[in-house]
Amino acid sequence: MNVKSDTKKLTLLSVLLAIEIILSYTPLGFIPLGFMNATTSHIPVIIGAIFLGPIAGGGLGLAFGILSVIRATATPIVTSFVFSPFVSVGEISGNFYSLVIAIVPRILIGVFSYYAYAYCSKLKMKDSLRYAVAGIVGSMTNTIFVMSFIYIFFAKPYASVLGLEVSALFGFIMGIVGMNGIPEAIVASIIVSMLCKILMPIFKKVL
Question: Does the pTM exceed 0.90?
Answer without folding.
Answer: yes
